[in-house]
Hints:
Helix content is 39%, strand content 15%. It has nine helices and nine strands. By secondary structure, the chain is α/β, with parallel strands linked by helices. The strands form three sheets. Strands 3, 4, 5, 8 and 9 form a five-stranded parallel sheet that branches. Strands 1-2 form a two-stranded antiparallel ribbon. It has two domains: 44 residues, no CATH class; 197 residues, Rossmann fold (3-Layer(aba) Sandwich), CATH 3.40.50.2020. It is globular, with a radius of gyration of 18 Å. The structure holds zinc ion (2 copies). The site of one zinc ion (ZN) has 8 residues, from β2 and α2.
Amino acid sequence: MIKGLxxxxxxxELKVNSEKxxxxxxxxxxxxxxxxxxxxxxxxLPVNRWHCQRCALPLAFRSDTLSCGECLSMPPxxxxxxxxxRYQYPVDGMIGRYKYNGQRQYARPxxxxxxEHLSRHFQSSPELKPELIVPAPMHRKRRRQRGFNQAEDIxxxxxxxxxxxxxxxxxxxxxxARPQRxxxxxxRLHNLRGMFEVYGAVPARIALVDDVVTTGATARMLxxxxxxxxAEDVQVWALARTPG
Length: 244
Ligand SMILES: [Zn+2]
Ligand SMILES: [Zn+2]
């Protein structure tokens, strides 16, 4: 049974990756896909509809002004987080295939959706548009292992779509962190202290980009480092936000 499933999934992989089917939906293999997903699968994606206004943490009820408990007790240095989807099925798998297997076609619909979402957002409030997009840095060792930094890839796409410059050389990750999920809040922040270094002057309004916002602790440290270097407003953009 499992052998059969594995064979089937290899077949699907071959089909999805072959040039011939470049126009098919990556989820259901339908042929009428836009940016890699058909309309039905696109509508099935878990939209992060109700969320904390600061960190985008999914909330169980509608709230236009409320922040989550963590943002209320310890307000983050960033002003807002924009993450259109919840990090759950099938978004988690799509991002995983992209990040760990380099299968970019799985992230394409999410990147295009985030770009559209941001375009709409800045049409109604152009004064909030950032002057620079900064991808969350990856330690150079990990970048070498993976071959690319997905945050840079996403930053580049958003830069093209929104006509905002991006730079991967303004901030550097100095060392690895222990996996954040294993740690409590205090330990998480301590784990990240002194982790990042900013180079040169930065503009007043910056967007920090990552694939997923998990605990928000990394975004807090990055935003603090950018604000210490002169930024006045840092917002966070991501494809997805974990439910908690
Ligand atoms: Zn589909
Ligand atoms: Zn929050």
